Prior knowledge:
Blueprint: E1 4-11, H1 17-27, E2 33-39, E3 44-50, H2 54-61, E4 67-74, H3 81-112, H4 115-136, H5 142-172, H6 180-203, H7 209-238, H8 242-267
Antiparallel strand pairs: 1-3, 1-4, 2-3
Amino acid sequence: MSTIYKAVFKIEKMDCPCEENLIRLKLEDIDNIIRQEYDLADRILTIIHTNDIAQIESTIADLDLGSTLLENTETEYIEQNGEDKKQRKALWTVLIINFAFFVIEMATGIISKSMGLVADSLDMLADAFVYTLSLFAVGAAVARKKKVALISGYFQILLAVLGFIEVIKRFIGIEEIPHFETMIVISILALIANLACLLILQKTKSKDAHIQASLIFSSNDVIINTGVILAGVAVWFLDSVIPDLVIGSIVFAIVIRGALRILKLAKS
Length: 268
C-alpha cells in the first residue's frame, strides 16, 4: 500500500471560487491526488496524495498564483463518502434557491422597471452557474468542465453588458420611477433566501472547498440584497430613479468581474 501524504500550500492569490476551480482543473489529471481541501479565507490548499509531491507543486506553481509549499508530511486518510453526500445535497439546495430567485427577480425587475432587481437576479444566476460547475462537472473530463465554464462566463458578460446599456439609456433619457414597493419586498424575500442558504451550508459544518465557496457567495449576496433594499428606500424618499441605477451598475460590475474570472478558468 502506498504511503499517504498531506501537502499544505499557501496560495496568496486564491481569494475566490474561480481560482479554486482553476487549480482543480489543473490538478485534474494527476492520478496520485486523493483529495483536495480549499480554505479560501486563509488562502490554504491541502492535498492528500501518494508518491512524489514534485508534479503537484510544479503544476500549481505554473498558475502563477503565489504558491508556497508549507509542509508535506505522512498522514492517515479516511474516506468521507457520507459527508460528501451531505455536502452535495446542501449545494443542490443552494443552487435551486439561487436559480429560482434569478427567475423571480428578473421577472419582477422587468415589470417594476428596477435595474437593481434585474442586476441582483444576474448575481443570483452567476452563483447558480458556479454551483452548477462544481456539481455538474464532478467526475467529468477537463474539456467538459472548461466548456461549462466558458459558456457560463460569456453568458453572464452578455447579460451584464445589456444591463449596462439599459442603465446608460435610463440615465440619458427620462424614465419612469421604478416601483420601490416591489424592489423592497422582493429584495427582502431574496435576503431571507440567502440567509436560509447560509444556514443550510453552515449546518454541514464542513471546511471543504465548495461549501466554503458557497458560504462566501451567500454572504456576498446578503450584502447585495441589503444594498437593493436601501436603494428602494432611497427611490421612495427621493422620488428619483438614480439610486436604482446606481445599485444596478454596481451589481452589474460585480457580475462582470466574476464572469471574467470564470473565463480565465475556462481558457487556462
